[in-house]
């Protein structure tokens, strides 16, 4: 009995010693709060408002500090200088993808967003090249987005000015753009197949933003023994993979290697070219996961930003009026907006940038990891250590953006009303892991929003001062609260 008691009393000490040796053995990690055995600093973190916790830690430990999320150390970078120094100045060393056990369980190291090494490099290089060849940032994709913007307007007209929740319609438009790039065809908004796809994508982002998933990623063993929303996520991933593979099989039957029609065709041609290379990254697993990544990044992030945009524009009708005045002056009512218009619309451009800055869609970015033992600010961070970058601390820096908690397009305008860029504008991250679809997302936001405001007045159901803009979830992504509005034709 005495031996058992001694063992129980010794166990916490041994675990603390193990944690200390992790931090002081192979490397010299930055300072941070003292972790508890097994659970690390979990009890000291508010996972419902992670940014507030990180901000408080930074005040005590500085812009670079270590947290133990479970038993594994995570180095946190807080503030523009630390984030820029790591992701840009030391870009190669900090270009790894940190572990997200739940997503890793679904992707198994394939695709773009959550892969590493040669898989990541090959999939990223191929995706960028293919998207550019199919007109990403060029006229062909622009025409596709313009066409979808007109379809979006027609769907909004069907509401006939009645109150509606725009979530579904605003999800359809960017999803259809991705469908056009991946599958070469768009869907009718009421198509059952399309509705199912939208539902799964919407559900995934909600699940990923829940506090339970944050806990599961810190203590992955829970996923093996406890039921929860992680089961829903894994089922959705499996459904989407099967759906995409059905599309791949259809493409194999009609493939013309001399005339590729879309992303899948290009990938299948590359697979044929490398069929004798046994180490090739071009296989069905990478194709399915890459498509899934493009849908996840290209649909939910854009639709959530659009949804948040309308909420903010209703909250600030004087800003909306100035945007619509600029639309009338530069574009008029009788032609569709185009990307060339943006350079002549500094106020609208500033509003779009301010929306992305203010909503802070991915507060802590996707986790990075160091690809080798990295020397950084007199610390030695061991290879594989997870790196958490606080994009909130950059986008809401009060020196670069005075009163950052206030929605103010003036953050991106000079005294003469000209649009001004900021190095602190990092909603798509920065460095080697910057979002592959940044150019497409920025095009969609400009064309969709200007087309909506060209055709409708936004009428809230409550007084603008009573509109709440605080996000309902602030874990993986910041989601706007639910709301309704009326689209009044002009």
Question: Could you list some keywords that capture this structure?
Answer:
490 residues; alpha+beta; Cytochrome p450; five-stranded mixed beta sheet; 17 helices
Summarize the structure.
The chain has one domain (3-489): Cytochrome p450 (Orthogonal Bundle), CATH 1.10.630.10. Helix content is 52%, strand content 8%. It has 17 helices and 11 strands.
Would you write up a description of this structure?
Helix content is 52%, strand content 8%. A hairpin with a 4-residue loop joins strand 1 (64-68) and strand 2 (73-78). It has one domain (3-489): Cytochrome p450. It is an alpha+beta fold and 490 residues long.
Low-confidence stretches: 3-11, 13-26
Query: Order of helices and strands, N to C?
Result: HHEEHEHHHHHHHHHHHHEEEEHHEEEE
Can you tell me the CATH topology? Cytochrome p450
For the record, the CATH architecture stands as Orthogonal Bundle
Computed structural class = alpha+beta
CATH class: Mainly Alpha
Give a short account of the largest sheet.
5 strands, mixed
Report the portion of residues in β strands.
Answer: 5-15%
Total domain modules: 1
């Amino acid at each position: 009995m005495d031996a058992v008691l001694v063992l129980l009393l010794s166990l916490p000490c041994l675990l603390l010693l193990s944690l200390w040796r992790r931090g002081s053995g192979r490397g010299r990690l930055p300072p941070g709060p003292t972790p508890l055995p097994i659970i690390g600093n979990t009890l000291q973190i508010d996972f419902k408002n992670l940014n507030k916790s990180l901000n408080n830690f930074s005040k005590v430990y500085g812009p670079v500090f270590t947290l133990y999320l479970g038993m594994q150390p995570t180095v946190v970078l807080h503030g523009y200088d630390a984030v820029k120094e790591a992701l840009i100045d030391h870009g190669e060393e900090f270009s790894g993808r940190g572990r997200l056990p739940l997503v890793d369980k679904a992707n198994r190291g394939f695709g773009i967003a959550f892969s590493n090494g040669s898989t990541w490099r090959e999939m990223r290089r191929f995706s960028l090249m293919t998207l550019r060849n199919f007109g990403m940032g060029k006229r062909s994709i622009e025409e596709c987005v313009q066409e979808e913007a007109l379809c979006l307007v027609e769907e909004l007209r069907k509401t006939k000015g009645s109150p509606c929740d725009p979530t579904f319609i605003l999800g359809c438009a960017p999803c259809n753009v991705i469908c056009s790039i991946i599958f070469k065809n768009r869907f009718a908004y009421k198509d059952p197949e399309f509705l199912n796809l939208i539902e799964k994508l919407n559900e995934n982002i909600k699940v990923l933003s829940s506090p339970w998933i944050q806990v599961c990623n810190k203590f992955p063993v829970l996923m093996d023994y406890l039921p929860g929303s992680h089961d829903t996520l894994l089922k959705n991933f499996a459904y989407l993979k099967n759906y995409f593979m059905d599309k791949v099989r259809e493409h194999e039957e009609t493939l013309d290697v001399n005339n590729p029609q879309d992303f899948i065709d290009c990938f299948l041609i590359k697979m044929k070219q490398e069929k004798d290379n046994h180490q090739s990254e071009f296989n069905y697993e990478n194709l399915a996961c890459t498509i899934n990544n493009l849908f996840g990044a290209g649909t939910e992030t854009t639709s959530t930003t659009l949804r948040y945009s309308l909420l903010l524009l209703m909250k600030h009708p004087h800003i909306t009026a100035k945007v619509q005045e600029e639309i009338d002056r530069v574009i008029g009512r009788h032609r569709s907006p185009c990307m060339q218009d943006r350079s002549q619309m500094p106020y609208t451009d500033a509003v779009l940038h301010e929306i992305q800055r203010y909503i802070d869609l991915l507060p802590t970015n996707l986790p990075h990891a160091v690809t080798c033992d990295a020397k950084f600010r007199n610390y030695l961070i061991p290879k594989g250590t997870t790196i958490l970058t606080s994009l909130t601390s950059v986008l809401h820096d009060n020196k670069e953006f005075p009163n950052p908690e206030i929605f103010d397009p003036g953050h991106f305008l000079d005294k003469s009303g000209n649009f001004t860029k900021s190095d602190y504008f990092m909603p798509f991250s920065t460095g080697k892991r910057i979002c592959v679809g940044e150019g497409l997302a920025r095009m969609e936001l400009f064309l969709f929003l200007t087309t909506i405001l060209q055709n409708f007045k936004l009428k809230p159901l409550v007084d603008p001062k009573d509109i709440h803009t605080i996000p309902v979830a602030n874990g993986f992504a910041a989601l706007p609260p639910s709301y309704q509005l009326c689209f009044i034709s002009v």
